[in-house]
Design a protein that fits this description.
Radius of gyration: 21 Å
Distance between the termini: 35 Å
Order of helices and strands: EHEHEHEEHEHEHEHEHEHHHEEEEEE
Oligomer: single chain
Largest sheet: 7 strands, mixed
Strand content: 15-25%
Strand order of the largest sheet: 2-1-3-4-5-14-13
Structural class: alpha/beta
Number of helices: 11
Shape: globular
Helix content: 25-40%
Number of strands: 16
Length: about 375
């Protein structure tokens, strides 16, 4: 491994805290609900690590930076955290933001365990410095495509905005569905108003509409327009990126919209215990993103205990990780087409909110 020199403070032996930098979207235009859940999981795990004696007797400390869904802000935060002497980075939800953070972490020689972002190409070139807990987009979105086909949807419209993440999702769906008899109709939301989307759906005889757009605009207005249009009474609205997981994004309109979530059908005893603690901390049911946050710290704490605080040794440890997380045994491997160390065993399900009881999730399809 080509190891850049560690700056002063990268490893401390004076009994001070062991610092981990945390990248979290806490203000708009970031998905603030996701950021809040991610931070809750990170903080809960840090508290438990410290209650159990910390890292070799030293307390674990989170140094939190708000990325606000801004790639440049995230890259600047990575540079600042590297100067502050953090042993590693954790977190981030937005894929485009995580890509900017991973690129800077790779260049600086700073280990980064990405919690939630799914973009396959998290870095342009393979890197030893970055590992990821969330499944790669290609795996999750192919499972979502299987769900669409199994539910009888072969003419699928995609309302898409312009971004690397949405373009990647569109390409994955098209490449997977086309050989299996599916047709993908792309609707450019830079050019269409929500009412025009309804006309396109009716004219193309689509049976499903996927929202590959931001929130609250135009996602909420599209959902409202489609559900008011009598021509589209039978159309299924889907959101593979997970907006319905957070009630703050779509509100009551988020019911009966299938989305991807990364939880097992049944939580382990550890997962159930953490769920109870997260529910108390959040005052609501924890999302899968909160579990991702907890598992991120569980992995990093194990690595720090086993390999110390030297950044190069942390990065070298990724292929040797074997940690019981809230959603299963976490191990990292090299996956073809994925540039970072990847947890290949992430549980994946397609779920939606029950229209009768919106706080209850219905599992529709599993990997």
């Amino acid at each position: 491994m080509n190891t850049p020199p560690s700056p002063p403070g990268a490893e401390r032996t004076d009994g001070s805290s062991v610092r981990i930098g945390a990248l979290v979207p806490l203000t708009r235009p970031g998905w603030v609900g996701a950021g809040r859940h991610l931070l809750a999981g990170l903080e809960l795990a840090v508290r438990e690590v410290n209650n159990a004696g910390g890292i070799a007797g030293r307390p674990l400390e989170l140094v939190v930076r708000d990325t606000a869904a801004d790639p440049q802000r995230a890259a600047a935060a990575v540079e600042e955290l590297a100067r502050l002497g953090v042993a590693a980075l954790a977190g981030e939800y937005h894929s485009v933001v995580a890509r900017a953070a991973a690129t800077r972490a790779d260049a600086l020689g700073l280990p980064f365990l990405c919690s939630s972002a799914v973009l396959d190409a998290l870095t342009e070139q393979p890197t030893q410095w970055v590992a990821r807990l969330a499944p790669a987009q290609s795996r999750g979105w192919q499972i979502y495509a299987d769900f669409l086909l199994s539910a009888g949807h072969s003419r699928i419209a995609i309302a898409a905005e312009s971004s690397v993440y949405w373009a990647s999702g569109t390409r994955i769906l098209r490449d997977y569905l086309a050989p299996r008899g599916g047709t993908v109709i792309e609707l450019d939301m830079r050019a269409l108003a929500p009412t025009a989307v309804c006309d396109e759906l009716a004219g193309n005889r689509a049976t499903a509409l996927l929202l590959l757009v931001g929130h609250p605009r135009p996602a909420v207005s599209i959902v409202k327009s489609v559900r008011r249009d009598q021509r589209l009474a039978e159309i299924m609205i889907g959101a593979p990126a997970g907006q319905p997981e957070f009630t703050s994004l779509l509100g009551d309109d988020g019911a009966a919209i299938p989305f991807l979530r990364y939880l097992p059908e049944r939580l382990s005893p550890l997962g159930a215990r953490v769920e109870t603690a997260l529910r108390e901390r959040l005052a609501e049911a924890p999302s899968f993103v909160a579990f991702e946050g907890y598992d991120t710290i569980a992995v990093l704490a194990d690595v720090l205990r086993s390999h110390g605080m030297d950044r190069a040794r942390i990065a070298e440890s990724w292929p040797h990780v074997a940690v019981e997380g809230t959603r299963g045994q976490i191990q990292f491997s090299r996956t073809p087409g994925i540039s970072v160390w990847q947890w290949a065993g992430t549980p994946i399900q397609v779920a939606d909110r029950d229209p009768v009881e919106p706080d209850r999730f219905r599992i529709l399809h599993t990997s």
